[in-house]
């Protein structure tokens, strides 16, 4: 057996130095040299802020759509509520200044898009698109959305109540939420719900997708969460 | 010793002449075996190999990608949406010219669109309202009161129809189903059916006829390999004829002294060490062993429902109800299982499915038992980051599990779905329930209702998209087998594998005929 030490000193050198007071110790409080993953930073912010929950659903939706964290990195500065994690991500901070003007392409960041996986009960593409709906929806003219909405209104005998303050986009999306044939609207982001209905072959209206993508491009994060979802979920704000 | 004896190193490498060579050499014989030193020529048989490629249908995403915020309603909705087209096609074909008293049946889109007195048919999900089903309030009550109600074998209300109701549900609403035609049908919560009938004066839907999606399309033998070869423009190599697979379940290793003998006998049988030469040649055709669940006895991290609230008194008086008492951990069962597998693996590839009592997730689909549980056997497994298409000799699979073995599509579960269906229906015929599962195209129909399950956001993974050639279910009370036939000529061999701990039986399935045979290992006790 090795001979025992006579003095009972603490084991680590830094602790013993601190005990002796001879050297200054390293402080790990403020300095983060490694970029923190945007997802964990997002997660912490979302827990504290009630309104960030909508953003979190969108982030998850987007992250699952594109299967790469690069897209998430770009979306971070677009949220109005959360403070940009500037200390954690010096690379993203310059983009935080003007988020809307130059959306960064996924292909240019971090070596490109991750490959799609065919995990998933439906065996579809990892991003959830079947065919070219995304491009078609982006090209859809505003007039067609107005026509679609006029058709929906004409199906009713009486005008809708309590919707005077809402814009056309929100009205279209609420109508989509209340269509039961596409599944429950609670607990799922609107874009994800549209994609799911599409993959299951239920033919959700392309106008709704156009509205969703337009709102998303504008940086409106709250649009992804159904209004009834907010009403039905009892999430209290931590003070 | 070589130095003292003066003999060279070659003497150490050659086999001593008194030892019997192992009759079943591993598929890649090493260079050290020097048969010239043995005097008697024992023919060494090589084990037949079979191509094996698993499917990842039931593998859940890892870590952060697994979400639990969604409700189960999404899963029911997706299940209905996935199965509706096929039921609709079948029902339309069957009932398009159906007439009663010159009234033709009409298809109705939603359950609430059914009008009273009108002959129509509608598609929806079955929901069985049974007061004796496990109820969360009962579970809470058990923790506060001293006496727990005994666990029920079946959920049916004794004494007839009483409180049990069958309902048809879709996104618009529910219809209560009544009628004599329901008595002969096997129905559980979660099955997607089309019902034909009318609404009577009470508001109940009287059922005249019922249709289920029936067996899905069956792939031809070797379809996946041929497809892959065609896609990559490679020539298909010649395939071996014959071969067998051994299926065992319910090894039930508990670390007690009592379970080692039958297990060792099974090991010797599979390695060919304990049989005569004709048996050995037939055993050498067994190309794989499938262990279908419950390899360990009470290794589940969550105690079963009936033991919640008993403070684990059955097992150990000091076991805590909540939290983890690490001093109570016994490594003997997993060590024994690991030893069993690592003795078997050099010679025989193994597929391991978890069961209700195994140390993995409780909710279906159970994820593969982690490599950390098998310190010796994991050298035969492929490294964690490799693609799922090359699993290595030891494949730790999910429950339920689907894989292609020698061209045939196999689908297997550890027994939980069938045991759960058993509680819903009055009959005792397990094969009927397995056949019903295939005809409903659902591997776990009762899944979110009484069977714990992952809340799939995008679609129900338990929906069968292709009919397997062999459907095996482990941990059943006895061995049974039949062939289920489908409307398009599909033929599926259904095998109920008994628990090895109780019966000592191993099922051997032949690849060419898909006929099962039984091998029983018993110890005669005086």
UniProtKB/TrEMBL annotation, chain A:
One cellular-component annotation, GO: delta DNA polymerase complex
Organism superkingdom: Eukaryota
Ranges of compositional bias, category Polar residues: 22-32
Start and end residues of each stretch annotated as Disordered: 1-103
Any one GO MF annotation of this record: DNA-directed DNA polymerase activity
Classification via InterPro entries: DNA_pol_delta_4
Biological processes per GO annotation: DNA synthesis involved in DNA repair; DNA-templated DNA replication
UniProt biased composition (Low complexity): 9-18, 88-97
Compositionally biased spans, kind Acidic residues: 59-69
PANTHER family linked to this entry: DNA POLYMERASE DELTA SUBUNIT 4
Name by which UniProt lists this protein: DNA polymerase delta subunit 4
Organism: Cryoendolithus antarcticus
TrEMBL record, chain B:
Documented EC number(s): 2.7.7.7
Keyword Transferase: yes
Residue ranges annotated for the DNA polymerase delta subunit OB-fold domain, each copy included: 71-209
Main location: nucleus
Region described as Disordered: spans on this chain: 1-49, 297-321, 376-396
Biological processes per GO annotation: DNA repair; lagging strand elongation
Family per similarity comment: Belongs to the DNA polymerase delta/II small subunit family.
Protein name per the record: DNA-directed DNA polymerase
């Amino acid at each position: 057996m090795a001979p025992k030490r006579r003095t009972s000193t603490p084991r680590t050198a830094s602790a013993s130095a601190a005990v002796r007071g001879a050297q200054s110790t390293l402080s790990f409080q403020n300095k983060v040299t490694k970029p923190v993953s945007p997802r964990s930073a997002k997660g912490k912010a979302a827990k504290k802020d009630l309104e960030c929950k909508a953003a979190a659903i969108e982030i998850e939706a987007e992250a699952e759509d594109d299967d790469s964290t690069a897209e998430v990195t770009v979306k971070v500065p677009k949220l109005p509520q959360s403070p940009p994690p500037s200390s954690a991500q010096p690379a993203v901070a310059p983009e935080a200044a003007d988020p809307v003007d130059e959306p960064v392409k996924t292909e240019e960041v971090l070596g490109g898009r991750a490959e799609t996986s065919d995990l998933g009960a439906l065996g579809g593409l990892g991003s959830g698109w079947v065919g070219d709906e995304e491009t078609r929806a982006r090209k859809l003219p505003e007039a067609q959305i107005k026509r679609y909405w006029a058709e929906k209104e004409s199906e009713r005998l009486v005008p809708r109540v309590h919707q005077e303050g809402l814009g056309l986009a929100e009205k279209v999306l609420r109508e989509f939420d209340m269509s039961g044939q596409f599944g429950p609207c609670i607990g799922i982001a609107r874009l994800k719900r549209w994609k799911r209905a599409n993959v299951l072959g239920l033919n959700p209206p392309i106008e709704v997708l156009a509205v969703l993508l337009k709102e998303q491009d504008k940086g409106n994060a709250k649009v992804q969460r159904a209004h009834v979802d907010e009403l039905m979920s009892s999430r209290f704000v931590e003070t | 010793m070589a130095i003292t004896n003066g003999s060279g190193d070659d003497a150490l490498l050659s086999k001593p002449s008194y030892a019997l060579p192992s009759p079943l050499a591993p598929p890649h014989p090493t260079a050290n075996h020097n048969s010239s030193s043995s005097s008697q020529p024992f023919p060494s048989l090589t084990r037949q190999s079979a191509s094996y490629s698993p499917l990842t249908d039931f593998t859940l995403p890892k870590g952060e990608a697994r979400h639990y915020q969604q409700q189960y309603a999404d899963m029911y909705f997706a299940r209905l949406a996935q199965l509706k087209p096929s039921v609709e096609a079948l029902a339309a074909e069957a009932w398009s010219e159906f007439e009663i008293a010159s009234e033709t049946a009409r298809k109705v889109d939603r359950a609430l669109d059914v009008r009273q007195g009108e002959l129509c048919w509608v598609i929806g999900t079955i929901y069985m309202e049974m007061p004796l089903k496990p109820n969360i309030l009962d579970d809470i009550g058990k923790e506060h009161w001293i006496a727990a109600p005994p666990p029920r074998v079946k959920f049916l209300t004794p004494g007839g129809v009483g409180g049990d109701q069958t309902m048809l549900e879709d996104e618009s609403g529910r219809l209560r189903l009544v009628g004599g035609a329901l008595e002969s049908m096997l129905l559980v919560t979660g099955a997607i059916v089309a019902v034909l009938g009318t609404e009577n004066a009470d508001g109940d839907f009287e059922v005249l006829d019922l249709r289920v999606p029936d067996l899905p399309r069956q792939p031809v033998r070797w379809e996946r390999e041929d497809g892959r070869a065609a896609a990559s423009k490679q020539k298909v190599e010649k395939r071996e004829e014959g071969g067998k697979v051994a299926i065992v379940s319910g090894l039930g290793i508990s670390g007690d002294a009592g379970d080692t003998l039958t297990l060792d006998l099974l090991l010797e049988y599979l390695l060919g060490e304990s049989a005569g030469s004709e048996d050995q040649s037939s055993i050498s055709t067994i190309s794989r062993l499938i262990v279908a669940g419950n390899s360990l006895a009470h290794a589940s991290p969550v105690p079963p429902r009936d033991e919640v609230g008993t403070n684990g008194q059955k097992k150990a008086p000091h076991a805590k109800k909540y939290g983890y008492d690490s001093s109570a951990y016994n490594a003997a069962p997993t060590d024994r299982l690991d030893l069993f597998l690592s003795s078997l693996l050099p010679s025989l590839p193994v597929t391991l499915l978890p069961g209700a009592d195994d140390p993995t997730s409780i909710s279906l689909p159970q994820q593969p038992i982690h490599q950390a549980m098998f310190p010796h056997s994991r050298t035969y497994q492929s490294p964690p980051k490799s693609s799922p298409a090359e699993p290595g000799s030891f494949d730790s699979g999910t429950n339920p599990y689907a894989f292609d073995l020698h061209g045939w599509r196999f689908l297997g579960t550890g027994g939980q779905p069938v045991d759960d269906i058993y509680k819903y229906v009055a009959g005792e015929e397990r094969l009927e329930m397995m056949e019903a599962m295939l005809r409903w195209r659902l591997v776990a129909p009762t899944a979110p209702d009484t069977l714990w399950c992952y809340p799939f956001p995008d679609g129900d993974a338990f929906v069968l998209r292709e009919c397997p050639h062999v459907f095996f279910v482990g941990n059943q009370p006895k061995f049974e087998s039949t062939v289920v036939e489908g409307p398009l000529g599909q033929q599926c061999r259904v095998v109920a594998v008994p628990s090895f701990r109780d019966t000592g039986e191993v099922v051997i399935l032949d690849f060419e005929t898909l006929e099962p045979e039984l091998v029983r290992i018993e110890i005669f006790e005086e």
